[in-house]
Amino acid sequence: VTPALPDLLPPTVAAVESFGEPVDAFLFPPEEAHVAGAVDKRRREFAGVRACARAALAQLGMAPAPIVPGHRGAPTWPAGTVGSMTHCDGYRAAAVAHGGDVLSIGIDAEPAAGLPPYVLTTIALDAERTMVADLTAAAPGTPWDRLLFSAKEAVYKAWFPLTGAWLDFDEARIDLDRAGTFTATLLVPGPPAGGTRLTGFTGRWLHRDGLLITAIAHQPDNSR
Ligand SMILES: CC(C)(COP(=O)(O)OP(=O)(O)OC[C@H]1O[C@@H](n2cnc3c(N)ncnc32)[C@H](O)[C@@H]1OP(=O)(O)O)[C@@H](O)C(=O)NCCC(=O)NCCS
User: Fold this and answer.
1) What letters, b where the CB count within 10 A reaches 16 and e where it falls short, cover 130-148?
2) What are the φ and ψ backbone dihedral angles of 175, each rounded to 5 degrees?
3) 224 pLDDT band (50/70/90 cuts)?
4) pLDDT recorded at residue 21
5) Mutation probe of ligand 1 site: the residue of 27, 88, 152, 153 with most atoms within 8 A of C-beta
6) Where are the alpha helices (DSSP H) in the chain?
7) What is the largest CA-CA distance in the chain?
8) 156: confidence class by pLDDT, cuts 50, 70, 90
9) Which of 67, 71, 82, 157 to mutate for ligand 1's pocket (most ligand atoms within 8 Å of CB)?
């Protein structure tokens, strides 16, 4: 029980992780309505990650509030806040910040197991496949293909609140490094950012206790 999402994010971001089911995973009526017909697994991850989100919002001094899926499934955060959520087997996490401190957040967690080969072909650019092969040869203990996938999911979650638009897997190139950081270079025009356009993101990753976690906090004075 050691993955440490807060270590991947700046101190202005409140991040809360949960391993297993939080006991106080209640839902507000509009949230409840969203999962009324869902299977139990989906209900539990939906409620559990919202318990993390409310705990993180409390660290910012915010009262508990509903976090309803909006356009294309993106969570609707309380006014003045930004955030991101992720869940996979045995893990839920949320990260939130005041909008004045951070422009958008993207976090993703995946089980630390290789991707089926056809998935890598679908999600990776040629340069990324070469990078994954090189990293796998140099450091075979980390499933670099799955880490690439996770970084792309984190990029999409950070991109979406800025644009409200889809971003395809081949529209950002990820460069992973062994030290625990990564960059994403946008291959399509980014949203306006301080008189210019956003060209990419930087993020951090960790591989610990069977989990891969990626995190991006896109800060105002940092055009990447
Ligand atoms: C939406 C998506 C990123 C979710 O990732 P995932 O690994 O399947 O699932 P996770 O558990 O990590 O994350 C799910 C959470 O993401 C959040 N989410 C969903 N859609 C989102 C969006 N459009 N923008 C931001 N966050 C979103 C939600 O909080 C969701 O949890 P909830 O439904 O319980 O509220 C993924 O399903 C997807 O559509 N990916 C395709 C787009 C993409 O990755 N492009 C690559 C660009 S390089």
Assistant:
1) ebbeebeeeeeebbbbbbb
2) -120, 115
3) very low
4) 67
5) 153
6) 29-34, 40-59, 117-123, 126-138, 144-163
7) 50
8) very high
9) 157
